[in-house]
Amino acid sequence: MINKLVIENLKYRWVRTLLSALVVGVQVMSILTLVGLSEGLLQESAERSKGTGADIFLKPGTQGTISFNTGQVSEKFVPLVAKQPHVVQAVGVLSQMVELVTAMNGVDFPQFEKISGGFRFLAGGPPSGPDDLLVDDSYARQRNLHIGQTVRLLNHPWRLAGIVQGGKLARFIVPITTLQNLTGNGNRISQILVKLDDPALTDQMVIQLNKTLEGQLRAIPLADLLSQFSINNIPQLQTFIWVITALSVVVGFLVVFLSMYTAVIERTREIGILKALGAKPLTIINMLVREAVVLAMVGCGIGIFLSFIARELVTTFLPASMTVIAVPAWWPRAGAIALAGALLGAIYPGLKAARQDAIEALAYE
Amino acid sequence: MSNPEMIRVRDLRKTYRVGEVDVHALRGVDLDVSRGEFLAVVGPSGSGKSTLFHILGGLAPPTAGEVWIDGVDLRKMGESQRTEMRQKKVGFVFQKYNLLPTLSARDNIALARSIASVPAEPPGFSDTLQLLGIANRLDHKPRALSGGEQQRVAIARALVNQPAILLADEPTGNLDTENSTAVLNLLRGLNQRIGQTILMITHNPEAAAFADRTVTMRDGRIK
What we know:
Largest interface: A-B, 23 and 28 residues
Number of domains of chain B: 1
CATH superfamily of chain B: P-loop containing nucleotide triphosphate hydrolases
Strand content of chain A: 15-25%
CATH topology of chain B: Rossmann fold
Order of helices and strands of chain A: HHEEHEEHEEHEEEHEEHEHHHHHH
Strand content of chain B: 25-35%
Structural class of chain A: alpha+beta
Helix content of chain A: 55-70%
Number of helices of chain B: 7
Number of helices of chain A: 13
Order of helices and strands of chain B: EEEHEEHEHHHEHEHEE
Shape of chain A: elongated
Largest sheet of chain A: 10 strands, mixed
Low-confidence stretches of chain B: none
Low-confidence stretches of chain A: none
Number of strands of chain B: 10
Mean pLDDT of chain A: 87
Oligomer: heterodimer
Largest sheet of chain B: 6 strands, mixed
Radius of gyration of chain A: 29 Å
Distance between the termini of chain B: 27 Å
Structural class of chain B: alpha/beta
Radius of gyration of chain B: 17 Å
Strand order of the largest sheet of chain B: 6-7-8-3-9-10
């Protein structure tokens, strides 16, 4: 019967119920979209790394596997690595962030083609000059770019030479020398891609390369690199998600608190009636807590639905700027976060209602 | 101690603290109500009727004096025991009906059972609903019921747990003459048919005339 009373109370003040659930839902959507965005970007980065065709990645020894730092490796290591047995090709790549989460790669095209099998051109062709630029199809579509037009990136005018199918290196690919000069990284690169004659020798070669390079560079097999593309391996991202989660709990708390507090004030007389009928304080707290739980659960459902809408909007309007994926594994977590905020928000109104004097409550107009 | 009366009150006193002033609402009330009796309590506003009603119903503790309800001493009761008493020993009927607006008449009645953890309606309760004339109105919410119907639902809710006493505070205060007479006849009928002990507070001498006996309160005492 208490459950029925809870549902009827929520239905009776349906506008407030809907608004409260909607705000909780927006918080849930924020969490799911943020996590989906993070996971999406990492997944995309992993696929781009895989798309290079490299078996081993050489990164600075002091740097984490996933890093946005540029130009920390000297180019002199490239020929040294290329001379090692079983190494078919070694290519230096310089990375530079261009927009918030979009990178540009500088690379020697002929060498990279040997590793990756080359780009698949949807329009135009390989770069022929130092200021030639390749972009992937998503970016070209989002910006409505055409071959031959000038694209200004890093405060530099580039000629769009080709539009390639995405999935190899970054969205923007330019000659490495130009990017090194432009970013003040002369003779420096971010990492070295290594192609072996036999991928089965990867583990053996990782040991050998680490020995040869004496800690100046760290050899990472492709499989290990891919496994590192996770939120858990990026402390800054984890902190950001924690901040958003904490904000969501606070907002959920405030919304449910306000909703429950006004409900308790509005229903003072009804609480008096329940007390006159012999309802215990715990029964009244229980009733309000159940209302908060329903609000949180409905809000969670709305939030999951809104996260799909957000994903569609991002995919439709910003295909090259952001990649958002659905993260069902986070649905229970987002629900728990919404629930935590709602339960915190129900405590004080619940206690206030439970402490309400029955006689005063019955006299309330 | 076994008590032959349904209600036994001796030298009952109640003092409220309002700001820095003590308000003596009850100044030594003595009252006996027999099992199955229908008693009307009349008196002007501020005479202490409602305070007596609240103490007998376990909504407020007495300051001093003895109060026995169906053989149970209220002085020994804490808040939780008084809450339990309200579940099963006392049924309230209020002037403003006090039905929960979100629930149907049936659910308002069922809620009282649920709170008291009474699993099923008592035998013969459907007859009571017939007597109250609301059997075919139970699926309506209070806003779809007339004042008279709401008050009859409130009476049904008060009776569903078979309370020892029914406390009615101005039960006809919000009703027109026709509905007032109907409700008073119902109370009278319940008293006569099922022997329900009823204590009714009223300003109205005509309403009081429906009771077996009338006592008058003035200045916190029964005259």
